[in-house]
């Protein structure tokens, strides 16, 4: 099997921890990041510590397979002073990095189980950036344009 070249903007072209995009939305005070994680791009949306969304663990928004991380920034990977929700692009249908080949025996089992699986998606930082912008716009709309909708996202909170 010949190894396929990664497209421009693939996480394979960036060092671990590299922040490819850092987005600030002055209207909602939310911040978005596209960060090179160990296996793929990772996307984050954060609220400043004094924001009413900060520390909220049941926040819902549409993103790639749902968010799978939440917590305060530590200042090492994620900036401090924000509470972050994050998701990755290392799911079954996504290309995982590093793309080390599986041992021959495991590859044979994988091929038998998933022979009809389409080629995994190698996400670019610009594609992930668009997803982060979509989440910020979704949350901004919920916060600013519809107090009732915002209250349904976070019950018993006044905006």
Can you walk through the features of this model?
- This protein has one domain.
- It is 23% helix and 21% strand.
- It is built from three helices and five strands.
- The radius of gyration is 18 Å and the shape is elongated.
Note the main attributes of this structure.
159 residues; alpha+beta; 5-stranded antiparallel beta sheet; 3 helices; 5 strands
Short characterization:
The chain has 159 residues and is an alpha+beta fold. It is built from three helices and five strands.
- Calculate the mean pLDDT score and round it: 84
Global morphology: elongated
Stretches where pLDDT is under 50 for at least 5 consecutive residues are none
Cα-atom radius of gyration: 18 Å
Report the biggest beta sheet as strand number plus sense, adding barrel if it closes. Answer: 5 strands, antiparallel
Strand order of the largest sheet: 1-2-3-5-4
Share in β-strands: 15-25%
Total strand count, please? 5
Separation of the first and last Cα atoms: 56 Å
What is the number of domains?
1
Give the H and E element order: EEEEEHHH
Secondary-structure-derived class: alpha+beta
Helicity level, as a percent range? 10-25%
Q: Helix count, per DSSP? A: 3
């Amino acid at each position: 099997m010949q190894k396929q070249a990664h497209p421009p903007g693939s996480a394979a072209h960036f060092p671990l921890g590299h922040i490819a995009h850092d987005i600030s939305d002055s209207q909602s005070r939310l911040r978005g990041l596209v960060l090179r994680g160990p296996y793929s791009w990772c996307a984050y949306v954060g609220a400043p510590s004094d924001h009413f969304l900060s520390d909220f663990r049941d926040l819902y928004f549409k993103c790639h397979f749902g968010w799978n991380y939440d917590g305060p920034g530590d200042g090492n990977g994620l900036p401090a002073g924000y509470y972050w929700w994050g998701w990755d692009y290392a799911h079954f249908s996504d290309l995982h990095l590093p793309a080390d080949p599986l041992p021959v025996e495991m590859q044979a089992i994988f091929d038998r189980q998933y022979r009809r699986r389409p080629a995994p998606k190698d996400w670019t930082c610009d594609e992930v950036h668009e997803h982060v912008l979509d989440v910020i716009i979704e949350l901004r709309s919920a916060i600013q344009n519809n107090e009732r909708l915002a209250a349904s996202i976070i019950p018993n909170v006044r905006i």
